[in-house]
Structure prediction request, 136 residues.
Amino acid sequence: MADPATFRCRRCGACCRVPGYVALAGGEAEAIAAFLGMDVYAFTSRYTTLTFNRRTLSLTERGDGRCVFLEDDNTCLVQPVKPAQCKGFPFLWSTPALERVCAGMRTARGSRSGRYFRGPLNSSSGTAGARSGRRK
Prediction:
């Protein structure tokens, strides 16, 4: 996990381009659907899929593996209501794949002489396998 004292997000969108689950917690599908002005059933049909264990909804990806809500200018279409899993990265969870692509994490790691650590994924919120252990 990254240290908030040294990590600075570069807004490069790399974290949103690594294929993997973006699991939705309770109420998040409804919040995103409302933000987009959609019926929740239309939203889940268009923008979600079931995870491999068939217990959790995950946001779909575009053909290149990036999040369906990542815009071309690296902004998040649903930023005000983005899922908790997205809000938690890189302070509450991380993966080796994300550590490799995140410029902010590499810079923070270098500035602290490698003294940052990779913490466990938050399995209580359904983020195990998040954005690296894809379902394909």
About this structure: Helices lie at 28-36, 40-47, 84-88, 96-101, 103-111. Residues 112-136 have pLDDT under 50 and may be disordered. Strands lie at 48-50, 57-59.
